[in-house]
Amino acid sequence: MSTTPKDANDSGLAAKDPAKRSRALLIVATIFVLAGLTWFVLWFFVFSTRENTDNAYIGGNQVALSSQVPGTVVAILTDDTQHVTAGQVLVKLDPTDADVKLRQASSALAQAVRQVRQQNDSVSEADATVAAREVDLRKAQADLKRHLPLVAAQAESPETVQHMRDSVSQAQATLNAAKAQAQSARAAVEGTDIANNPNVMQARANFRAAWIAAQRNTIVAPVDGYVAQRSVQLGASITPGQQLMTVVPLHDLWIDANFKENQLRHIRIGQPVKISTDLYGGSVEYHGKVIGLGAGTGSVFSLLPAQNATGNWIKVVQRVPVRIALDNNELDQHPLRVGLSADVTVDITNDKGPALASAPAQPPAETSVYDQVAAQAEAEAEKIIRANLGTSTDASN
Known about the structure:
It is found in: Cell envelope. By secondary structure, this protein is an alpha+beta fold.
């Protein structure tokens, strides 16, 4: 259909109509204002109240398991990916040499107890000798005293009296020697009972060391966790400190989120955090809280720190690790693994808290497995001491 000149003129007039053009500009301006207002509202109520980063990784304790004594591996009772509990035997070493040393230490402890008992008996014997020599001295003095008047009356020869004086002197010297011997015997046991005698304590310490060394031929898990990086092999001859495997507890995990330096302005300890990981495709949301901020950037603690005081310097935005604690109940329902990446969002609405920790925190990891070994060694030493005290003697003598 052709356009008549009259229709073309009407279209040109409409395009040049100021009212229609103003209306179109008003619509466009309104759209831009609404978009800006929407962005401002989103920024004020959403974006300005959170800091987000995907440069975050799951962390946890990695308990390196090694031997404390040399030996040959005779049994491996666990493997990678398996769960172990604290105190569970993981590796066994050949116990032959340790058993021999333990028997020697046990005999030495028993012998030390018996020697101290003998020293106590020697003290009693020495005291009895002193008492006998005192009786001899008093008898010699009484004989001399009885014969002195006879000498004055010339009824007794002076030689006889002189012999009696010599007997008194000899009895006195014998008594002094007996007292010195008794004092020497008493010095070995004075001030302590049998169990706390220095010789017994030394033998007891040697026995405890030998007993603990024998127990260390069975290597146990210090904590609950999962085995990783098993390198020990059957029949291998290992040395103290050689790493055998790693036990990774999947409780008490944390996240190290590396925020840019311009994101740290409002991050504070105690702020709530939301976390998602690729492991569950973002369908699981974890909740944690900020427990600390790193004392420096990663570049400062690197093997070769950056030398910024050079001529060719380029500014690079640095990152600081922020430690985030996770909820163990959520970890039980949806376990995580050490080293996984995460996306974290910190709620910075309340930024009045401290930026640096001011009080010592609880120990991040501890175990009481080895305390039991020391207590058992002490109990075994006590048994040996009791067994060698005799029926008529106890530790308080």
